[in-house]
Amino acid sequence: MATIPTAASTIDSAEMGRTLAHEHVFVLGTEYQQNYQDWDEETRVAEAVTALAELKSLGIDSILDPTVLGLGRYVPRVRRIAEQVDLNIVVATGLYTYSDLPFQFHYNGPGLLFDMPEPLTELFVKDLTEGIGDTGVRAAFLKCAIETPGLTPGVERVLRAVGQAHVRTGAPVMVHTNPHTQSGLVAQRVLAEEGVDLSKVVLAHCGDSTDVDHLTELADAGSLLGMDRFGLDELLPFEQRVDTIVRLVERGYGDHMVIAHDASCYIDWYTPQDAARVAPRWHFRHISEDVLPALKARGLSDDDVDTLLVANLRRLFE
Predict the structure, then answer these.
(1) Where, per the database record, does this protein carry N6-carboxylysine (predicted)?
(2) How far is 37 from 52, CA to CA, in rounded Å?
(3) Which of 5, 41, 114, 135 is deepest in the core (most CB within 10 A)?
């Protein structure tokens, strides 16, 4: 067993229960929100409390929230929500970019204008060991991304800093990947070069692909596959997402997958109306109400489901 910090307290890994591996409380462009949005803090917080309480009522006990720098994370708001719901919110540290670094890090680092040890690594380690800012909330895992642009200099710096922070702390790693460009293989290579234990890595968004041969190649290196965009049927239809999980279980890879929606209580990348029109099932209830029954109808047992929702994530942290 292991002790896991959450946004409201700490829990034993045995208390994680059924866990969705990739959900966001808020995804915001902070400058945009502060300058242009008609933002009502109390309304948004209340909506989040309602949504997460409903998720708990459906039998989900915990979520991993990989909202990090670049996605508008504001830990005091998340902590305030976590204190009002009987659901564990496990937060991350890291940096989300597909290309360049924010200017707070662009000129700072080994061999750069302001020559110093990699500040990203030091920041991530502090978030994991001491707390994020002065909130007292410690991150429990690391998050980074590699998308269609590939291993840009900025992306590589983040990946290597995440790898270095993992080696120093043992914290699990989650990587936003694009299975259509097979960027998960690149992420695995770079992280392995930094000494990362690939069994402690979740490769997010593998569920956007039906290429089972590619997915098993990733799993054979030890990593967990994030089948974590249920509800985004425009990216891959529901039936194909379910079928891919079933095929992987039939091949013996049930212990290499985790599931989620990659949904949020509020995201400002598009309006709620547009999201509901394009992806009407992209909400926190979809897995409990639709996905799990579909998986069982295709032959998965209760033990198989518990492996996806409980055992694999416990192993990740333990």
Answers:
(1) 143
(2) 23
(3) 5
pLDDT in tens, 169-179: 999 999 999 99
Number of helices followed by number of strands (H, E) in the chain? 14, 12
How far CA 232 is from CA of 84, 174, 175, 229, in Å, comes to 28, 20, 19, 6
Q: Which helix (H) or strand (E) holds 149?
A: none
Domains of the chain plus CATH, in order, are 3-317 (3.20.20.140)
Taking Cα atoms as reference points, which of 133, 128, 62, 145 lies closest to residue 93? 128
CA atoms within 13 A on the CB side of 5: 20
* pTM for this predicted structure: 0.97
Is 256 marked within a binding site? no
Known binding residue 228? Answer is no
Q: pLDDT, tens digit, for every residue of 243-265? A: 999 999 999 999 999 999 999 99
**Alpha carbon distance 125, 6 (integer Å):** 16
**Share of the chain residues as helix, strand and coil, in percent rounded to the nearest 5:** 45, 15, 40
Distance, in Å, from the CA atom of 73 to the CA atom of 156, rounded to the nearest integer, reads 22
CA separation for the pair 230, 240 (Å, rounded) = 10
Is 37 within 8 Å of 121 (Cβ atoms)?
Answer: no
261 annotated among ligand-binding-site residues: no
Residue ranges in the chain whose pLDDT is less than 70: none
Question: Tokens at residue 158, please?
Answer: 């983040």
Q: Are 71 and 95 in contact (CB under 8 A)?
A: no
**Do 92 and 316 touch, CB atoms closer than 8 A?**
no
